[in-house]
Amino acid sequence: MRAWYPWYPWLCLALVLTLSLGGSGRAGDTATVSTRELVTALRSGGRVILVIARSAPGKPTDEAYGDWADALNNFAAHADPRVKIIKVTAPAYRLAIADPTISGPFATLFVRDLDHALLYRGMILEPQVYHLGQGFILEQVEPSPAAAYGLMPTTIRLRRGKIGTSNLFAPGLADQDAGFCSPGSTPAVLRSGLAFGRTPCSLSQWPLSAAEPALVQPSKNAQECPSLLAIGGDGL
Amino acid sequence: MATLTLHDLGGLSLQHGDHDANRIWGGSPRPTQSGSPVTELQTALIKLGTLSFAADAADGAFGSHTEDALRRFQWYVAHLRFRLSLLPGAAPASGTIVPYPVSPAGTPGMCDAVTAALILSWLADNFVTTSPLVRLNVDSLSNIEIGDGFQRLDYPGAKTGEVLVHADFASALGGMMNREASEAGVVLHLNQTFRREGVPPVGAVVPPATRSQHLVGHAVDLNIVDGSTVNTTNLFRSGDQTENANKFIAAVKARGLRWGGDFSTADFVHFDDFLNPNGQDYDNAFFFAQRCFEHQHPMRLAN
């Protein structure tokens, strides 16, 4: 079992990454973290569950969303105390992580360390999936039994370079990403020329369409950038 | 000056806009009379359990909260077949669920003679409204089990092997679905039935759905287990679910259930009998199910 993670002993990291590109709400109890915070968490070496989500039902009657949210919230309420849960948005994820890429409106990534992770594409609708993922993180379950539930082994590749070379991470901006919410203007992340070191962002990497999720508070979004709320497709 | 009391309710036809302090009752000023019938009606509705606790201050003004509470009571007596019998001053958890013959409830939103008589009789006999949820003993069912991922709820008399569903859905789950599972040769592993409103007090990550069928006990999430194969969401997504799973799904859909796999955002583990989430029945079922669970009402055993 130890042979699974000799490479990053400082990264004894438990990461659950839930991506949501749909919806318009945001949780009250768990703040959406910035890319900087995400990378810090990934490199911190602590046992962490990182939930990256910006989600609310497109409709209040969306049963799939309801099942997903309920399973996630209940898992988070009873998660192993050795596993920390953090939430980030899809853009923050993409700024921080090169692989695996996410290609749907929802995905969940369970990371034991950077070399050993389980990716679940789509909404997790069965509570067992969280427990299998947590078991994997805590080295109680190997990938094989988890595969039946759609948890696929993967590795994590962070984007290289310094973080925070732009004002994207200036106080008050990191979690709001105001650039995303300025219709007709270039988003802050693009203006800044930022990226993670050697991999500058380009427009092609940032499909700033109506499907692009925002990092801003939904209430502000609704006022300033309503197009960002018109989300519903497989944005990424 | 004649003083109005609770027992005058039947002749007053209290309605929206009535006001004790202004001596407006039955939609008309009655300057020669006194009393506080609206306040007494509000107090009665609080006792009966239909005036929400956020608006339980009996202020003598017949506004929207009072009208809503009156409509809930009228809906209840016309739809639900059980009520809770309490000893005076006792907590709901110690109450006894007794049958109730549904009956006409008067003019909606108005405390006419019919409604007033019902209210007075319920109060006199210490009856209150209660939950539409029932306990379903899954252990007694041949082809349904409680799955490993089932999220248990805590309520008075909760027992291992039981789940909570709306009384109207109990026969679908415990009867029809169990029979069809047997016919198809599959076993249903339940993950969730009734769901509490809101999010856990600790650990909430995302906001919950607000109009789910689970919130009124009309839905179930389950895995269809066919021999050694668990038909997971992953299997359905790839189209690799078993034939017996398909057979079961087709059978229960033919009997009127909705399957989440047909939704625009697929939810392969979800089945419900669809209570219109924009209708009065949903609103009232939601109110009584959630409120009575919160206040620890006992739940009737369905089977």
What's this model, at a glance?
Chain A has seven helices and eleven strands.
Order of helices and strands of chain A: EEHEHEHEEEHHEEHEEH
What is the terminal separation of chain B in angstroms? 57 Å
- Give the N-terminus to C-terminus distance of chain A in angstroms: 35 Å
How many distinct beta strands of chain A?
A: 11
Largest sheet of chain A: 4 strands, antiparallel
Give the helix/strand layout.
The complex is a heterodimer of chains A (236) and B (303).
Chain A: E1 15-20, E2 32-33, H1 35-44, E3 49-50, H2 63-77, E4 85-88, H3 90-96, E5 97-99, E6 106-113, E7 116-121, H4 127-137, H5 143-147, E8 152-154, E9 157-158, H6 188-191, E10 195-196, E11 199-200, H7 218-224
Parallel strand pairs in A: 2-4, 3-4
Antiparallel strand pairs in A: 1-6, 5-9, 6-7, 7-8, 10-11
Chain B: E1 2-4, H1 9-12, E2 24-25, E3 28-29, E4 33-35, H2 37-48, H3 64-79, E5 82-85, E6 96-99, H4 113-124, E7 127-128, E8 133-137, E9 144-146, E10 162-166, H5 167-184, E11 187-192, E12 219-226, E13 229-231, H6 233-238, H7 243-254, E14 258-259, E15 270-272, H8 280-294, E16 300-301
Parallel strand pairs in B: 1-4, 8-16, 9-11
Antiparallel strand pairs in B: 2-3, 5-6, 5-7, 8-10, 11-12, 12-13, 12-15, 14-15
